[in-house]
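Researcher: Hi, I'm a grad student and pretty new to this. My advisor asked me to get structures for two proteins we've been looking at. I'm not sure of the right format, so I'll just paste the first sequence and hope you can take it from there.
Model: That works fine. Here's the first sequence with its structure tokens right after it:
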Amino acid sequence: MARIIAIAAPILILAGLGVGGTVVLSKLKPEPEKADEAPAGLNVFAEKIREGNLEIEVKAQGEVRPKREIVVAPQISGRISYVSPDFIDGGFIKQGQLLVKVEAADYELAVVRAQSSVASAQQALARETAEAELARQDIKDLGLEDASPLARREPQLAEAKAALDAAQAQLKEAELALQRTAVYAPFSGRVRERDVDIGQVVATGQSLGRIFANDVVEVSLPLNDEEMGRLGLPLAFASSTEHPGPKVVFAATVGGIKRHWTGKVVRTAAAVNSQTRQINVIAELQDPYGKGADGDAPMAPGLFVDAAIEGDTISDVLIAPRAALRGDDRIYVGLPDEGKLSIRTVDLIYSDPKGAYIRSGVEAGEYAITSPIQAAFDGMNITVLERQPDGTVKTLGNKGAKDDTQTEETAVASNGGKKEAEE
């Protein structure tokens, strides 16, 4: 027994010392410091919201067409004896210029016959006037008080006057037909096409060709109701000195070169298109072949052009990147110092590829997040990154103090690693 106690005693003493040492060391071990910094959130790119002016612009497309275009047609029939050398496809013509002449021999003879009829009617009227004067004198000499109009030869005199008037009308008609053997240009312009040539017999009203005026061309631009409202154009708009139409810049590629012409809106169409529910806004360009041309390139009819209609300028609006707009009226704002995401509802004026223009809901200088975020919620942990002009990426907020810049590839890789960790 004494032998067992002698062997167990040292073992128990050593075990007790080990347990006691462990307890003492655990008591003396310093407690680990608790980190105050929250875990880093999802990396997101953001751009500053700035203040500026909104120059409203509406884009549309349309085909150039002349304001005036007519079919040249004779008012008489006959054989063509002359065609102007300028009356050809693409030819330039001037107002009052002779374009086509029809053989006039038949119409000259008609004038001679009409003149003869007038001379006969004048002689008959002169004779009847003399006879009526003699009849009145005879009645007076006889002392008749109740002589009939027939006795005074009044109907005969009236008939002679009517015959003269008819003969004179026939003469004017013959002279007018003779004048119409020559077809003149009613305005200055260009020839779109010619349909006849010398020796061809034409009928009254037959097409000789088509011409259009080159002083003004117009473009019909279809706009919807929202675009009309953005420009402030009513349905019954007509340009005037007090209310001039908006400026329009036309653009098209001509001869492989981008060309531009400047016109203005002059009126709107009378009705809304029942199929497209749009209304046509008519824009004009003055002197498209002269002062209105872009160098040597006129804005010719038939050209299909892009049009940028300039509206009013709204001052002091907030401008955010277009990519930052979520839906119709929401923007995600990054709070770099807090490392949080804030979801804002904004009063959107208008958006285009250049940006989103806002009245209220955010402040200038705040960071609008442009990165796509799934299942975003207000207060979500994020790390805000900003692209620099030199291509590097800056980490904003307190976390950016240690490692201020990095490449975009590094930021994307880091962001991908965080997404994998979250998943």
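Researcher: Oh nice, that was easy. Here's the second one.
Model: And its structure:
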Amino acid sequence: MKCNYITIEREYGSGGTRIARRLAEECGIPCYGVEILEAVSRKNNVSVDQIQHLEESVSGSFLYTLFVMSKVQSGDSDMLSGEGKVFVEEQRAIENFAGQGPAIFLGHCAAQALKKRRGVVKVFIRANNEEKKKRIMADYQIPEGEVESTRKRFDNKRSKYFYANTTRHWNDVKNYDIVLDSSQLGIEGCVHVLKGLFEGK
């Protein structure tokens, strides 16, 4: 299978964002993460901070999830909540970016948006707690005493948002084609593995 798109979900502090950006740089293709939020922000005249707040407040209700999914499939977002509308707009932005050619997508349930496209490889990046702690302190300047609560908050947000919009569990390995441990492989090791997909190796 020719790889056209890589979608990456990742644990907070696993280095997933750095891996995606480095991979995009080495392969000469775009990486879309915060760019998805910025596209939604421009189109709907709402700030990125507001969008992130709506993502964080998404309902974990199974009935909400079924309702959102039915509206997404019908293309009707008029009766959706703010959270549901953000999801629909993010999915549209991802589709628009994918239409421009091969790319890497970070989070935002990108695999859901691209499920009808060919050549999509779904990746999950994890790391052990000690490595995540070091990276969170170094990359985000989070004080040591706040690392664990910050990590849990971000992972919980990602997990809830993923479930609310897919009915699947975010960290279930069955959702992914490849699971990488960045504490074992390192940032460059993960990049090397994923780069081979685009090179057909």
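Researcher: Is there anything I should tell my advisor about the second?
Model: You could mention this: The longest strand covers residues 120-126.
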